[in-house]
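User: Teach me something about this protein's shape.
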Amino acid sequence: MIYSLYIINKSGGLIYQSDFHTGLNQLSSNEYLVLAGTFHGVHALTSQISPIPNSKGITSLETNQFKLTCFQTLTGIKFLLVSDNNQTNLNLITKRVYELYGDYVLKNPFYTPEMPIRCELFDINLNQLLK
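Assistant: First, the predicted structure itself:
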């Protein structure tokens, strides 16, 4: 089960957030921004301190209650999926979300890159994929 999706721009700003199941603890809009900025910073630090050359930073984080999976594009956009621990194929799902982002957001002539995403077709297709 996928709980939430966050899309973070290359500067660490939250440009998209959506919850896919009811009953989740709701954060304020400011808390979502802090969460995105914090993850962006931790991701950058882990890629720098890794003993492996050209490390991509955190790609997944697992707790007793949930999994967080990150897919970073070549342009620095990060797609974060929060799911339950039993969810499989998270790398494939994040790549499919990236394809939807390309099809419905980047190809939208009214979208300005790095800005918050407001695209109804993107929302509809994400809901079909993740619910």
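Now, about its shape. Strands lie at 2-8, 14-19, 60-62, 67-72, 78-83. The first strand starts at residue 2 and ends at 8. If you'd like, I can walk through any region in more detail.
User: That's plenty for now, thanks!
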